[in-house]
# Entry
Amino acid sequence: MRHTISVLVENKFGVLTRVAGLFSGRGYNIDTLNVGPTEDPETSRMTIVTRGDDATLEQIVKQLQKLANVLKVQDYGAEDYIDRELVMIKVAVDSKSRSEVMQITDIFRAKIVDVQPTSLTIEVTGNESKVEKFLDLMKTFGVLDLTRTGKVALPREKAHAAQNLAQ
Amino acid sequence: MVSDKKAAASPTRPEVGPAMSGSEILIACLEREGVEAIFAYPGGASMEFHQALTRSTIRTILPRHEQGGSFAAEGYARATGRAGVCMATSGPGATNLVTGIADAFMDSIPLVVVTGQVPQAMIGKGGFQETDFFGMTLPIVKHSYLVTDVNDIPRVIKEAFYIAQSGRPGPVVVDVPKNIQQARTQPVFPRELNLRGYGADRRATDVELNEILGLIAKAERPVLYVGGGVISGNASEALRQFAERLQIPVTTTIMGCGAFPETHPLSLRWLGMHGTAYANWAVSGEFPPKSEQTDPPQKIAQGADLLLAFGVRFDDRVTGNVAKFCETGTIVHIDIDPSEINKNKPANLPIVSDIKFALESLNAILDRQPLVRDFSAWHQQIAAWKAKAPLSYRVTQEVVTSQHMQDHLAGKESEVILPQMAIEMLYELTKGDAIITTGVGQHQMWAAQYYQYKFPRQLLTSAGLGAMGYGYPAALGAKVACPDRQVIDIDGDGSFLMNVQELATAHIEKIAAKVMILNNQHLGMVVQWEDRFYQGNRGNTYLGDPENMKQIYPDYITIAKGFNVPAERVMFKKDLRAALQRMLDSDQPYLLDIIVPYTEHVLPFIPANRSVAEMIWKA
# Structure
């Protein structure tokens, strides 16, 4: 089963290697890994998408918590969370297909960021199903290049959401 | 709130020292941590530390190989519970420490490892004696540091000792580039730590503890299965009270030997692959000997219905086939490390706690609400098992007529010394009071079987990693920590040779640790597996000289002489007692080379990944 894990870490030397090494050293898989600073410059948040049964996930979370530079680990498996991924994709186009690609881009509220005679570079942001669907559609035109950030995620804070509604 | 802060400020105000070099600051930090001895081998990138050590009160012990230094630091740590400290230069000096660090990691031993690194400007350039030691040791450390600012040294060292010694102990590496060692600053020694991501204090709740007592109230056949956690958690006394009060039999892991006195009537000794038959039966039930077995094997007596697993990690050498281990019992697992819970064996009642806190709390609850149980039927069953399958050995015809014994004993084969015999006699002569270290292999198992451990930190052995060459340097470390105790390395000829150079350390530093080599001229444990699983085909397991098999090779007596360490060889049973006594009476390091047959197998024996049903226990 796929899980999205959020790992809040101290911004210290070697933290990324420590976390990545924990996965490789114990035979766990990483599907995607994203890391960047949070609102506190001394901490970073890693979002890791990984696979495994319940026992494996339990171990992954506990082993991460054991690292001295790890402040907090959340397995979003069962929780309500918001996730986004950003993908940049370079699609082969000619005079005939260009407008069709632009139409699909429009429907997905994606953005064309570069136009060349034989290609379009498109930026698409969204949750997993939206991004996957878009990429699927682009395959028929010919994908020349692609890069993705991997998933970033935050929990949906229920109490806050309710407060916001009340206001 | 404001007044609270003010009140707290004065005793915790950091101490500011005079301007010093980074290396001097680091040594000053070690002094503040109460370090008495450091095992350190100098080199280009660590000589600054040694210069500072010449002006320190810390005793610097020069091992003759960095691996010896790391094992000695571990021996010191295992004997005292305080962090052992070792040091080496960059590159090869550091890589030679890796086995010791891995060993400390596997056995949860507090170790602070300081290494020199090439100057920061040279890092990544492939400079002389450069290795990425921080990167190299990541999978085998509890935590590690590459110091990049001289002002960080006091905080880093304080954190290193705290992390190494608290919670589940382990090794911490501190890598210091040479330019940081040479940089000068006014050090600020903190009194408090701020480790946001590290929590070591874990305590069971009353609800959890009462649940344990509830399970005991319903149990008919409880067993305590305790490990190294009880020793590192200083919980032996609390364990003894708990076991005695409820009359629950106790088996330990090898790491737990001495956590509960093995001479105690409730002791089942240790369990697992080469543990006692009765301990294994008490946990998983009794099965008929393999030769008489039906398929599938029929259990002839029930094992534990409640297993109290305290400070253990269900290691494969203990459990064998983990699914069959205590298959029908309820398992309570207490460990301070949450990641050990449900890792190898799911627990019915998992509790994350400091074990001393848990046991003392249980005892306190029992003070208030006594729990009276009668386990006499269970005790009778265990007594029957103990009578049926005690640890035993005998001189077989096979041994007496073996070519090996004919070669070496030349007509006096009936005077053969079995390794088990020698250890039993050592136990008798030392009245069970010596600290024992071991190498790895058959002799290690026999040292654990035929010496009975009465107190914690008495058996120092490389259990998890199984690092040959551990015994003698570890004995040096233990003797430095406990100069008034008899410290004896029971070693194999293969293991001992791996760190034989430490005889120099012993002589020069006047560390009177003794070694008793059970010399069978073979790698005995691998030979045993060859005999059992490979039709006795020898694959590089003979350590003697194939061109002259009648000679004992190498000649440890001559080697010891070269190191100025007194030594003697004993071949015959009639000479053994006096020879052991001379070893014990020596006020210097001493080597006793005991010639033994290689044909002995360690029994009982549960082959790897098998269950107790397949235990071989009849010789």
